[in-house]
Write a structure and sequence with these properties.
single chain; mainly beta; four-stranded antiparallel beta sheet; two-stranded antiparallel sheet
Length: 104
């Protein structure tokens, strides 16, 4: 008889993250930064958001994912969105996808 189910992996998605001077970033972050040409802000690529943590109790449920973006003033949203769900079997999931690509 199964009493509880536990996640065997981390499950998450990526988004680019706003760079904050003086922030606590992992080594190699400068290789993954770029200037957003629309808003002239420095961004860091592939920040992970782990929606399900490894070892977490899993129960049947619906999950809502919130997504937001900044659009230039002259552009209307088209409401088309796609994302990739990533899985990670490591004991400790990385903060950024590029920190351990084979583990994700």
């Amino acid at each position: 008889m199964i009493v509880t189910r536990r996640a065997r992996r981390y499950y998450g998605s990526t988004a680019d993250d706003l760079f904050t001077p003086g922030g606590n970033y992992p080594p190699g972050v400068k290789d993954h930064m770029y200037m957003d040409p629309r808003f002239l802000q420095l961004l860091i690529e592939d920040k992970m958001t782990w929606h399900v943590k490894k070892g977490a109790t899993i129960e049947p449920s619906r999950t809502t994912f919130l997504w937001s973006t900044l659009l230039p003033p002259d552009r209307q949203p088209d409401f088309i969105f796609s994302s990739t769900l990533y899985a990670c079997e490591l004991n400790e999931a990385p903060e950024y996808k590029w920190q351990n690509p084979p583990g994700i």
